[in-house]
Design goal:
heterodimer; A: globular; B: 16 helices
């Protein structure tokens, strides 16, 4: 294909950082990919796009939308052009996330034990206690190895100056890692030889790394501890991911009804009787985990599992109560935490955040609502938020009324213009906004981050919301080794 | 292996075997309907595979296209191929980490292809044999993939237990359908055409010709379909395999359940093995098949109780 046909429609406004272009020059890291695409016709490219869809569908890499009895299976839209991160950029990200995760783990240990950070008035006590995810059940419980967050999916975005910002810390049950792995598999199929030619670092070690970490947490010192992935079941939208992880690690995928607690030990029901479980990588939320302690009507969890956990007879990953650390209101204190616990300056910046629970900040936000995004502190997935610049006056006034009901539940941030990356659409490359979620693993021997992650992309033109529930898609994410 | 997963694999397999059997029956019956329309009726097929009352059955018996549509792509029919495949796939999904990726993909593709609206309209307009052959190929591809890729572990045993149990029940049904209303003996009017037709639907006609050379006789058909250990769709072959795969589940744990089931399967196995065509005809085919099916259902219930149940 001719260069001008492919790139004719690629307009980037000056307010946005573009991953592929700078001052109308192709960035070095994208040169190979663009050259490769020039060699293909529109038909060939369309065929590759079609092939990617087919591969997802036939492998059942789908999430289910329920509306009329039988669920409709949809694939998570995939854009064939990879998002490329240079070695220098990655080095910065890696250091920043490692530092942040270290501080967040220390924070969790602190708020559930001695609470120095509250006594030293770095984080206000009411901020912690008013968070619905702060679990009193975890108070003074010595979590093994002091690790609360074993798996984190921290969201990064890139502002117009090209520097990375932390958007969200996902410390509970971050999802999407299977897409990181599957997207790479698809790229291997649709762009043969392109990965080695670009010296892209492999992400395939993720499952074995995770498995090794889970093994190291076993309370019983035995050669083959029993590790399980606990899923809410096949109707969960991330069920595909749960099966993928279980399969790739070669461990059992269990549901709550497969487990039973006896004498503070967890067992699974097998065809040859009960078998003790040592480590549970759970993908069930805190509040559903144990009907005896949390929501009594939950059928997804296991009665008595908390008692087994507290006795130290089973390891649960991630630990419970982590929601207090990735709460959107606590978020604004993370840079202070890093200074407080580590005596270091934060490597990755926070997006400026206003607490609507604090009157001064609230007044400021209300005055400048056009340039703000307001979010609920305990919602995720792009639900319950207000984008000031694209909402009607009525929507804004309704939303602000809702804020006044309980201001603590809301925060505001200036609208950050996410960076754009090329997407293949209708025979040409078009810029679309992206974010980045690398997956960090924390074990007794340290923090490791697989070089890659999930790049989510807002497929609608001009949209800044990348969540899959809001019309987002994903890309393969390349981290170059040089 | 988790009880729930064993249960899922077992049912995935039963449903696949069932849809394979139904598709073959539909194909042969359709072909028969084109040959001898005066004699032909869909009633036996509808009796065997649906829960319809006599009135709707009678309205369908001579409308091949409507029967095919009802049996293949009608969502209202619990035993339509589309519903059976959907259930097979749901079970596969629930045991997804215990079947190979290839097997899952194979079943998933089958599911997506049968959901196509195009298939439904083709059943009403185009050549049904081409379509049913296409579906049979998908089933065969499933069997092949299972055989080529699944490790020979516990999961594979449960898959085969489900497969052969379902097959034995199905063959007993097919053989018995002509005798639903006649409690005694073989009816004389079950003519050669009928037996040919029956053998064809379980791929046994060629073997019959090679074994018996002469014309089609009830006694010989019974011998082949129940007692020929080399015929992969005979009852003895299915029970043989069922027994063999069950014996692989022997372990130090769960000996109670194992012993009980092993006894039940062994008892049935012996009874069929030490039958002859003459002894079967003497006691009445219907009564004999009824007893076999009763035993198979009891085995299925005990499997459920000792291997799949969630309670302790």
């Amino acid at each position: 294909m001719k260069a001008d046909e492919l790139l004719n429609n690629y307009f980037v406004d000056s307010q946005t950082w573009d991953e592929m272009y700078s001052n109308n020059q192709l960035r070095e890291q994208y040169r190979n990919v663009v050259e490769f695409m020039h060699q293909l016709s529109v038909e060939e490219l369309n065929k590759k796009e079609e092939m990617a869809k087919m591969l997802f569908m036939s492998q059942g890499i789908t999430f289910t939308v329920y509306n009329s009895g039988e669920g409709i299976e949809k694939i998570f839209p995939f854009d064939i052009i990879p998002r490329i991160i240079t070695a220098v950029e990655w080095d910065h990200i890696e250091k920043g996330i490692t530092q942040r995760l270290k501080a967040l783990n220390l924070f969790l240990k602190d708020v559930y034990n001695n609470q120095f950070i509250i006594k030293d008035r770095v984080v206000p006590a009411d901020m912690v206690y008013s968070c619905p995810h702060y679990l009193r059940e975890m108070y003074r419980f010595p979590v093994p190895y002091d690790i609360y967050v074993h798996i984190a999916g921290i969201d990064l975005i890139r502002n117009s100056d090209g520097s990375f910002y932390i958007l969200e810390d996902n410390l509970r049950t971050p999802s999407g890692v299977s897409y990181m792995l599957e997207n790479r598999e698809i790229t291997k199929r649709i762009f043969p030889d392109l990965l080695p030619a670009n010296q892209v670092r492999s992400v395939m070690e993720y499952p074995s790394l995770l498995h090794k970490n889970l093994m190291s947490l076993s309370p019983r010192q035995i050669a083959h501890p029993t590790i399980v992935v606990l899923t809410p079941g096949m109707f969960n939208s991330a069920y595909f991911e749960h099966t993928t992880l279980a399969r790739m690690m070669g461990v059992e995928l269990v549901e709550g009804r497969d487990l039973v607690v006896d004498n503070h030990r967890v067992y699974m029901k097998t065809t040859s009787g009960l078998q003790q479980v040592d480590v549970i990588y759970r993908r069930v939320d805190d509040e559903f985990l144990d009907p005896l302690v949390f929501r009594p009507e939950s059928t997804l969890g296991v009665s008595g599992i908390m008692s087994a956990y507290r006795k130290g007879n089973v390891a649960i990953v991630n630990s419970l109560g982590n929601g207090v650390a990735d709460d959107k209101a606590i978020y604004s204190f993370v840079p202070e935490m890093i200074r407080y616990y580590l005596n270091e300056e934060p490597i990755l910046k926070n997006v400026p955040t206003y607490q609507l629970g604090i009157p001064d900040q609230r007044d400021y936000v209300f005055k400048n609502v056009q340039s703000m995004v307001i979010k609920k502190t305990n919602e995720s997935g792009g639900y319950g938020m207000l984008m000031g610049h694209s909402s009607s006056d009525e929507e804004i006034s309704n939303y602000l009324e809702a804020v006044m009901q309980d201001p603590r539940q809301f925060i505001a941030q200036p609208i950050i213009s996410l960076s754009s990356a090329p997407c293949y659409m209708n025979g040409a490359l078009t810029p679309r906004r992206v974010d980045l979620r690398p997956y960090a693993l924390c074990s007794p021997s340290g923090i490791e981050i697989v070089p890659g992650g999930l790049t989510r992309v807002a497929l609608r033109e001009g949209s800044l919301v990348v969540n899959s529930s809001q019309g987002g898609g994903s890309k393969d994410t390349w981290v170059l080794s040089k | 292996m988790l009880s729930r997963v064993a249960d899922s694999l077992y049912w995935m397999s039963r449903y696949m075997e069932r849809s394979d059997g139904i598709i073959r029956m539909l194909r042969v019956n359709y072909a028969f309907s084109q040959e001898d329309f005066k004699e032909f009726s869909w009633k036996p097929v509808l009796k065997m595979f649906t829960i319809l009352d006599d009135t709707p059955i009678n309205s369908l018996t001579r409308n091949s296209r409507a029967v095919l549509q009802y049996m293949v792509s009608n969502r209202e029919n619990r035993n339509s191929i589309i519903n059976i495949i959907t259930r097979a796939r749901e079970n596969a999904r629930s045991g997804q980490d215990h079947i190979t990726k290839e097997l899952w993909q194979c079943l998933n593709e089958f599911y997506h292809s049968i959901k196509e609206e195009q298939l439904n309209s083709a059943l009403l307009k185009e050549d049904p044999i081409t379509i049913l052959d296409g579906l049979t190929r998908q089933c065969v591809s499933y069997y092949g993939t299972a055989d080529m890729t699944m490790i020979r572990g516990e999961g594979y045993s449960f898959i085969n237990i489900g497969k052969f149990l379902e097959r034995a029940v199905q063959v007993a049904d097919i053989l018995g359908v002509k005798f639903v209303n006649e409690n005694e003996g073989i009816s004389e009017d079950a003519g050669a055409e009928y037996w040919k037709h029956l053998l064809n639907s379980i791929s046994g006609y060629e073997l019959y010709l090679k074994t018996y050379r002469g014309g089609l006789e009830a006694r010989n058909v019974i011998e082949q379909v129940i007692l020929n250990g080399n015929f992969p769709r005979s009852i003895i072959y299915s029970i043989n395999r069922l027994h063999r795969y069950f014996e692989r589940l022997r372990s130090e744990r769960n000996t109670d359940g194992y012993n009980k089931l092993n006894f039940m399967i062994g008892e049935l196995h012996s009874r069929v093995r030490y039958s002859t065509a003459d002894s079967i005809m003497k006691q009445g085919l219907h009564a004999y098949l009824f007893r076999v099916k009763e035993d198979l259902y009891n085995i299925a219930n005990s499997l459920n109780q000792h291997y799949f149940a969630y309670s302790l």
